[in-house]
Amino acid sequence: MPSLVSRYATPLITGLFLVSLVSGIALFFHVGGAAFHGMHEWLSMVLIVPFALHIWKNWKPMTAYLKRMPMALSLALSVVAAAVFFLPTGGEAGRGGPPQFRLAQTVLSATPATAAPLFGMSEPDFVAGLKDAGLVATGTGQTLRDMATAAGKTDAELAATLLQFGS
């Protein structure tokens, strides 16, 4: 086992790091979508094994690194850089993820009067379609999401209902 670790830990880390690097850059620039997303997630998980083997193989040099300021400073900076992504981004406007998810959330939060034209329908026809799907407005200004919640439906069920209007 030790010779196997010696021969393959570093080369596997190098190869998987390069895959992670390329897929990460592609994801950053929104190129390749689903293929790069799955590749990046799964192969980053696989990278854990050769990383652990590499640390095991190089334990003595690693302990020497851990005793010095550059390693402590690098690890601290890495933790701070990662922690920045957990900071709030300014309320509701900063939430919601990718633009297509924010758009969907905006539509689900619209009133029937606002949403009807998005589906090429008049408000009365749109409301009738909602009623046929079991969604009934109990007051003016009620959002589609409020109607779905009152009917015991999830956002996903509401979205599926709305997509039928576009067919």
From TrEMBL:
Bilayer-crossing regions: 12-36, 42-59, 71-91
Keyword vocabulary terms for this entry: Membrane, Transmembrane, Transmembrane helix
Keyword Transmembrane applies: yes
Record bears the keyword Membrane: yes
Domain of life per record: Bacteria
Protein name: DUF4405 domain-containing protein
